[in-house]
Amino acid sequence: MSAPANTAARRALIVVDVQNDYDGGNLAIQHPPFRDSVVNVTRAMDAASAAGIKVVVVKQMAPEMSPIFALGSHGGELHPEIARRGRNHYVEKNLPSAFTGTDLEDWLRANAIDTIAVVGYMTHNCDLSTIIHAVHMGFAVEFLSDATGSVPYANSAGYASAEEIHRVVSIILQSRFAAVLKTAEWIDCLKTGALPERDTIHASNQRALSRSAA
Fold first, then answer.
1. Is domain 11-213 annotated with CATH 3.40.630.30?
2. Is the pTM of this model over 0.85?
3. Would you say 167 and 192 are in contact if contact means Cβ atoms under 8 Å apart?
């Protein structure tokens, strides 16, 4: 369902899990810093509203005893900058993808949306899951890489910093699953009608091989 180059995208902005636990709480975003990325989330929301693009706000739900996003906790509530802004649709989810167990797909199709722009948290978890799910259902996807963020991980598979996780996932997304761009670039696309650059697995691989050989 990716729009041809001469066809205007019918977008919705999907604001994923911008909740207080990410803002210095029990799952504090490290890269890009939350204080910077949340500003870009709100910039995208404001630009979408001004352009007549529908905004969907998504919230992760967890049981009362969960260490993150617990039902009824401050950490589980929407960040105030998101809560105070208008939205066209609201989704509560229990799994990473905003499509699983929700009405998001039905709502998008009922509104003739063919392209979703994803912002919010986290780059490598709920954003990644939502983006891949969307592509498999035929939607075109845009990912605003400075309106999201990651945390570091260490487990039996190894260690990765927040910067590494965010950077690598962004590269992978651009290679196949989404057009990855900055918020300011996305806002320019809304104004000009231009579609953001997309890439392919093969082209991304060939560039990497050329870089290694240089």
1. no
2. yes
3. no
